[in-house]
C-alpha cells in the first residue's frame, strides 16, 4: 500500500507529472530525489518514471527540447529552461553481460516492477502527490535505521552491475549510514568485479566517497571491499607501524587522516587534499623494513609514494591538476619545515602561499592520525607555527622579483648592461633581501645596483 507522506515538489516537476497523468499515464518521482527529500536534503536532480512509452513521452512533451541519447533504455530527457529532467518508462532489466549494462530492457506497466530492479532499498522508492510514497522494499525503514541494503538478493544485484559495489560504500560515506551485513558480505565477495568498471567511473565514485562526512569511518571499515577498486589498499591493511608514533596500521592511519581533513575546505583544495590523504602512505608496504629494535621503518616512502600515486591517478584518468598537485604534496608530506624567515621566504618563492597552506593541511591531518603522544603534539605545534609565520611573510615579506622596490628599467638606469645581466642583478638583490642583508627599500636597492654596474666595468 502506498504510504501517505508529503514531499514538496518543485513546480516544474509537479507540472511534468501532471502532464503525463493528464495524458492517461501514471508517473512518479523516483530514486535519489525521494531518498533525499525524506532525509530533509534538497535534491540536486529530480528523476521521473512513468507508464508512458518513450514515444508517448516524446509526444506529450513535443513543445519542449528533448535529448534522446537514453532512448535505448527507455529514457527521454526533457529540457525545461536550463534544467534537464530524465523521464524513464517503467522497466525491467535484461541480462547483464558485462557486469555494468543490461543487454536489453523490457517495459512493464506498473512502478512496482521498476523499483524491483534498483540497487538499494533507500533508492527504490517512488512518490506521487496523489498516490503518496510507493515503498515495496522497506526503504523508508532503512532510512530510519540508517542502513544501506540491497534490493532483493545482494550477490545478484552486484553481479548485474559491479559499480554498485562501490556505490554501497559511497552511500555509506555520503549519508553516514552502515551497510547491511549481507550486502557488505556480497560486496566483499564480488569486489574484484569492480575492475570491469571504467576508470573514470571508479574515480568519480571514490571522489564522492572521499567527500562524504563519514569518509574516515567508512574507509576504515570497508577497506577490503575498496581494494577491489584500488588493489594497492590490500597491502596497507595490517601493515604495522612503530608504536612510538603510531596507533594504527597503514590503512587505518590513512582512513583516520582522510577523516581528519577539515570539512570546510575550499572547493579548489578539497579534491586535491582528499586524494593526497588517501594515497599519501600507499607505498609504505613497498618500503617497509624492520630495524634491529624490531620496529618498522619506511625509508623513501615519500618519493616512492608520489610515484605510486602518479601511477594510480593516471590509471583512474584523474584530472591532471589533481594528479600533479597530489603527487607533489605526497613527495614532501613527511619532510621537515624550516623555522627561519629566509628559508620560509624561499619556500614561498618556490611554491606559493596556496600550495604551502595545502602542505600544512596535509601535515596536520597526517599527524592527527598518529598516536596522541608529546612528540606528535610537538610536531603539530611546529606546523602551526610555520603556517602562521608563512602567512605573515606572504603578506609582508619580499620573496619574488616583483616584490622588489626596483625593476628592470631601474637596473638599466643604474648602468647594468642590457640582457641577462639585468635579471642576474635583480636576483642578487632578491637574495640579499631574503637573507636580510639588504632592506626592501628603493634608495638602498638603487645604490646597490649602481655598485654592481660599477664593479662590472
UniProtKB/TrEMBL annotation:
<keyword id="KW-0548">Nucleotidyltransferase</keyword>
<keyword id="KW-0808">Transferase</keyword>
<feature type="domain" description="HD">
    <location>
        <begin position="246"/>
        <end position="366"/>
    </location>
</feature>
<dbReference type="InterPro" id="IPR050264">
    <property type="entry name" value="Bact_CCA-adding_enz_type3_sf"/>
</dbReference>
<feature type="domain" description="Poly A polymerase head">
    <location>
        <begin position="27"/>
        <end position="149"/>
    </location>
</feature>
<dbReference type="InterPro" id="IPR003607">
    <property type="entry name" value="HD/PDEase_dom"/>
</dbReference>
<keyword id="KW-0547">Nucleotide-binding</keyword>
<keyword id="KW-0694">RNA-binding</keyword>
<comment type="similarity">
    <text>Belongs to the tRNA nucleotidyltransferase/poly(A) polymerase family.</text>
</comment>
<dbReference type="InterPro" id="IPR002646">
    <property type="entry name" value="PolA_pol_head_dom"/>
</dbReference>
<dbReference type="Pfam" id="PF01743">
    <property type="entry name" value="PolyA_pol"/>
</dbReference>
<protein>
    <submittedName>
        <fullName>CCA tRNA nucleotidyltransferase</fullName>
    </submittedName>
</protein>
<feature type="domain" description="tRNA nucleotidyltransferase/poly(A) polymerase RNA and SrmB- binding">
    <location>
        <begin position="176"/>
        <end position="220"/>
    </location>
</feature>
<dbReference type="InterPro" id="IPR006674">
    <property type="entry name" value="HD_domain"/>
</dbReference>
<keyword id="KW-0819">tRNA processing</keyword>
<dbReference type="Pfam" id="PF12627">
    <property type="entry name" value="PolyA_pol_RNAbd"/>
</dbReference>
<dbReference type="Pfam" id="PF01966">
    <property type="entry name" value="HD"/>
</dbReference>
<dbReference type="InterPro" id="IPR032828">
    <property type="entry name" value="PolyA_RNA-bd"/>
</dbReference>
<keyword id="KW-0479">Metal-binding</keyword>
<keyword id="KW-0460">Magnesium</keyword>
<dbReference type="InterPro" id="IPR043519">
    <property type="entry name" value="NT_sf"/>
</dbReference>
Amino acid at each position: 500500500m502506498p504510504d501517505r507522506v508529503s514531499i514538496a515538489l518543485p513546480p516544474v516537476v509537479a507540472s511534468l507529472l501532471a502532464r503525463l497523468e493528464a495524458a492517461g499515464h501514471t508517473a512518479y518521482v523516483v530514486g535519489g530525489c525521494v531518498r533525499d527529500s525524506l532525509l530533509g536534503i534538497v535534491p540536486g536532480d529530480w528523476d521521473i518514471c512513468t507508464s508512458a512509452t518513450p514515444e508517448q513521452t516524446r509526444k506529450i512533451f513535443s513543445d519542449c527540447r528533448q535529448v534522446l541519447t537514453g532512448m535505448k533504455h527507455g529514457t527521454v530527457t526533457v529540457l525545461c529552461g536550463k534544467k534537464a529532467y530524465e523521464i524513464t518508462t517503467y522497466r525491467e532489466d535484461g541480462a547483464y553481460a558485462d557486469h555494468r549494462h543490461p543487454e536489453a530492457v523490457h517495459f512493464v506497466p506498473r512502478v512496482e516492477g521498476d523499483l524491483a530492479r534498483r540497487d538499494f532499498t533507500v533508492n527504490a522508492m517512488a512518490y506521487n502527490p496523489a498516490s503518496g510514497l510507493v515503498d515495496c522494499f522497506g526503504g523508508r525503514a532503512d532510512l530510519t535505521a540508517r542502513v544501506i541494503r540491497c534490493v532483493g538478493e545482494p550477490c545478484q544485484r552486484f553481479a548485474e552491475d559491479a559499480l554498485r559495489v562501490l556505490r554501497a560504500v559511497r552511500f555509506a560515506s555520503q549519508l553516514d549510514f552502515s551497510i547491511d551485513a549481507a550486502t557488505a558480505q556480497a560486496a566483499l565477495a564480488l569486489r574484484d568485479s569492480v575492475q570491469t568498471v571504467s576508470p573514470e567511473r571508479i574515480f568519480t565514485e571514490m571522489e564522492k566517497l572521499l567527500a562524504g562526512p563519514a569518509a574516515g569511518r567508512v574507509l576504515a571499515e570497508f577497506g577490503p571491499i575498496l581494494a577491489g577498486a584500488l588493489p594497492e589498499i590490500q597491502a596497507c591493511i595490517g601493515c604495522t607501524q612503530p608504536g612510538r608514533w603510531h596507533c594504527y596500521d597503514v590503512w587505518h592511519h590513512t582512513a583516520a587522516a582522510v577523516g581528519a581533513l577539515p570539512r570546510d575546505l575550499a572547493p579548489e583544495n578539497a579534491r586535491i587534499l582528499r586524494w593526497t590523504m588517501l594515497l599519501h602512505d600507499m607505498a609504505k608496504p613497498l618500503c617497509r623494513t624492520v630495524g634491529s629494535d624490531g620496529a618498522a621503518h619506511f625509508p623513501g616512502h615519500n618519493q616512492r609514494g608520489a610515484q605510486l600515486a602518479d601511477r594510480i591517478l593516471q590509471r583512474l584518468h584523474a584530472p591532471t591538476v589533481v594528479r600533479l598537485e597530489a603527487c607533489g604534496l605526497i613527495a614532501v608530506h613527511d619532510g621537515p619545515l624550516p623555522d627561519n624567515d629566509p628559508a620560509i621566504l624561499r619556500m614561498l618563492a618556490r611554491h606559493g602561499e596556496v600550495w604551502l597552506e595545502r602542505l600544512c593541511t596535509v601535515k596536520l591531518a597526517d599527524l592527527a592520525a598518529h598516536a596522541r603522544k608529546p612528540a606528535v603534539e610537538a610536531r603539530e605545534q611546529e606546523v602551526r607555527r610555520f603556517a602562521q609565520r608563512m602567512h605573515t611573510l606572504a603578506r609582508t615579506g619580499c620573496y619574488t622579483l616583483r616584490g622588489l622596490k626596483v625593476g628592470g628599467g631601474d637596473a638599466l638606469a643604474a648602468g647594468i648592461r642590457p640582457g641577462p645581466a639585468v635579471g642576474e642583478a635583480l636576483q642578487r638583490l632578491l637574495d640579499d633581501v631574503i637573507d636580510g642583508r639588504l632592506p626592501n627599500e628603493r634608495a638602498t636597492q638603487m645604490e646597490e645596483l649602481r655598485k654592481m654596474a660599477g664593479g662590472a666595468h
